[in-house]
Amino acid sequence: MGRGGADSGVVAFGRRAGAVIGAALGWGLVEAGWPRLRELEITVPGLPPDLDGLRIAHLSDFHLGVPSPGALAVERAVDWAAGRGPDLVVITGDLLTHPRGEPFLRGLVRRLPQPTLAILGNHDVAISRDPQAVRSDLADLAPATLLRDEGAMLELRGRNVWVAGVHPRLIVRSRAKTDPNALSTRGADFRILLCHYPRVFDSLEPGRFELVLAGHMHDGQIALPYPGGKIRFAHLTARYPRGVFRGPAGVMHVSPGLGTTFVPFRFAARPEATELRLRCP
C-alpha cells in the first residue's frame, strides 16, 4: 500500500473511532437523564404486622448545582414519588455538589409529600475528590426534616417509627464522630437508619435497626456489563454496590442514586428512584 493509502486508512479509522466515542458520550448523557422508576418489595424481619405494606420512597444522590442531565432525572423522580403518595420519603445524601443548586433543591423538596426526611452526603460537605464539589452543609431543608446525627419519631399507621440519620463526617478519621449504634432507641416499634455510606452496615450491632437505607455508590455510574454481572469502574471492589442486602444487622437497601459526579454521564448504571414496599416475614 502506498503512502496515500496508509494515510486514508488512518483517517478512516479516526473517523470511525470518533463516531463510536461520540455515540458513547451521547448515550451516556441520555442514560444519565433517564431514571428507572422502580417498585420493590422487601421482607424485613421485625416489621410489625400493622406496618406490613408500608411504602417508602427512597431517593438519593441528587448532586444538584453542576451541569448534568442528572438534574432532569431528579425532577422526574421527585414528581413520580410525589404522585405515588408513599407513607414516607427519604433522601440519603449528596443533595448538592455546589451551593448554587440550593434554590432548585428546595423547590423540589416542597413538591414531596410529608413526612420527608433527608441526610447529607460527602459532597454536601466537600469530602470528595470531585473538583466541582463545594461545601454547602445545609442546616435545614424545610418542609423536609434534615437529620444530622439525630433521629425523629414518626407515627405511621398507628405505630411509632424511629428514623435516625448519620452525618457524613462518619468517614473522616481525624474528627470525632457519632457511633451510629448510639442513634438507635428502644422506644419504637420499628427503626430505620439513614446513612449515605453503605459500609455502615458492617458497623451496626444486631438489634439496633431493622432497616438501613443508603446511597453513595451510583451503581458504579460508569460500568461494563458482562454475562452475570458488570465491572463498576467507580467502585471496583464495593461490597454493597446497589440493591438489597441482608446480614446480622438487619436489611439494607442501597439506592443507585439519581445524579452524577466528576462527569455528566452514566453507562450501564441508570439512575433510579425506588418505592420500597415492606413486608413481614
Quickly list its features.
281 residues, six-stranded mixed sheet, alpha/beta, 14 strands, 3 helices, 26% strand, Purple Acid Phosphatase, chain A, domain 2
Task: Describe the 3D structure.
With 281 residues, the protein is α/β, with parallel strands linked by helices. It has a single domain, classed as Metallo-dependent phosphatases (Purple Acid Phosphatase, chain A, domain 2), CATH 3.60.21. The chain has three helices and 14 strands. The strands form three sheets. The chain has a six-stranded mixed beta sheet with strand order 1-14-2-3-4-5. Helix 2 (70-84) links the parallel strand 2 (55-59) and strand 3. 44% of the residues are buried. The model has no long low-confidence stretch (mean pLDDT 92).
Per-chain topology:
Blueprint: H1 3-32, E1 36-43, E2 55-59, H2 70-84, E3 88-92, H3 102-111, E4 116-119, E5 145-146, E6 150-156, E7 159-165, E8 190-194, E9 211-214, E10 223-226, E11 229-232, E12 243-247, E13 250-254, E14 272-279
Parallel strand pairs: 1-14, 2-3, 3-4, 4-5, 7-8, 8-9, 9-13
Antiparallel strand pairs: 2-14, 6-7, 10-11, 12-13
